[in-house]
Design goal:
Distance between the termini: 34 Å
Strand content: 5-15%
Number of helices: 13
Oligomer: single chain
Order of helices and strands: HEHEHHHEHEEEEHHEEHHHHH
Strand order of the largest sheet: 1-2-7-3
Radius of gyration: 21 Å
Number of strands: 9
Bound molecules: iron/sulfur cluster
Structural class: alpha+beta
């Protein structure tokens, strides 16, 4: 039995009579870097009926959102960018949110469930963790592929738990995290922010946009289709694509070569190690100043 056991009796922090504070303290102890709470009503403005937290868990009142840094600080420094995708992730946010959901049920007697981030049919996940992070006051959308940037850590990976417990909500961020002041200065100078310069839409990349006179995002352009062909080469889709070609291949020798190829092998491992299928490109985030200080170690 370890401190991370999901039915661990309450520690001294949990014994406070503030369930929200106890849940947050637990989330940070078990792998979260940030945690926030949003009341379910906040989804009404952005999400159609049928996809709101209370449609997923009847009687839901709150959503707890946990964000964790994926790649370690060392992984960000590795000169071979390809290693980020295989060494970077541990999905601490998923583990933490599962422990949080169990804690809510065992310690408060309210229902809790991990928010569904994968589709049960079709291609759309039932809930957007990006939106959940914004509504829980953990970050705002950025120029870089619409990634939600946390003011302290920058890029984070998010999971959420929906619960019938009425928890104390956090305010949403008033100040946009992106663009950072240095990005505004760069934009005034060269017409691009660092992320746009790393992946410029007008030179075959995916990002563009403009900043208004007050230094705020005015317009965002993100070519998601182009990005996905670079950042998500290996995963369910590449496996399906490769399988069709392999099945259609009449030449037995060539079929064997295709099965043993790097492409098919990596498509298979990305399914086995799901972490590999998340992304294979980080270049817009590598140049982003938000959170950089937190990645500095000796
Ligand atoms: S992830 Fe890569 S391809 Fe996608 S926007 Fe960022 S730099 Fe461009
Ligand atoms: S580099 Fe980061 S902070 Fe700067 S504009 Fe791009 S996403 Fe925003």
């Amino acid at each position: 039995m370890t401190a991370l056991q999901n039915d661990t009796p309450a520690s001294s922090e949990d014994l406070t009579d503030d369930p929200t504070a106890a849940i947050k303290a637990l989330a940070l102890r078990v792998g979260g870097d940030v945690v926030g709470v949003a009341p379910v009503d906040r989804w009404d403005e952005f999400v159609p009926e049928g996809y709101r937290p209370r449609d997923i868990l009847p009687g839901a009142k709150s959503v707890v959102v946990v964000g964790s840094r994926g790649p370690t600080m060392g992984a960000w420094r590795c000169p071979d960018a390809r290693l980020m995708e295989i060494n970077g992730y541990d999905f601490g946010n998923d583990r933490a949110i599962h422990i949080v959901a169990n804690h809510i049920e065992t310690q408060t007697g309210h229902y809790a469930m991990q928010a569904p981030t994968l589709p049960v049919a079709g291609h759309q996940p039932l809930m957007s963790m990006m939106l959940a992070a914004v509504l829980a006051g953990l970050g705002t959308r950025s120029f870089a592929a619409n990634i939600i940037l946390n003011p302290k850590y920058g890029l984070l990976y998010y999971s959420a738990a929906i619960t019938t417990a009425q928890l104390a909500p956090d305010e949403m961020l008033e100040q946009m995290v992106c663009p950072a002041p240095m990005c505004v200065a760069t934009y005034r100078n060269i017409g691009k922010t660092p992320c746009m310069a790393a992946c410029p839409a007008d030179e075959g990349g995916c990002l563009d946009g403009s900043i208004d006179e007050d230094g705020r995002i005015e317009e965002v352009y993100y070519d998601r289709e182009r990005c996905s062909t670079r950042a998500m080469n290996f995963g369910i889709n590449s496996l399906q694509k490769a399988l069709i070609e392999i099945i259609d291949e009449q030449d037995a020798e060539r079929r064997k070569t295709m099965i043993n190829s790097d492409f098919f092998t990596r498509s298979c491992t990305s399914m086995g190690h799901f972490k590999e299928s998340v992304a294979q490109c980080f270049e817009c985030m590598r140049v982003c100043p938000i959170g950089r200080a937190e990645r500095k170690l000796k």
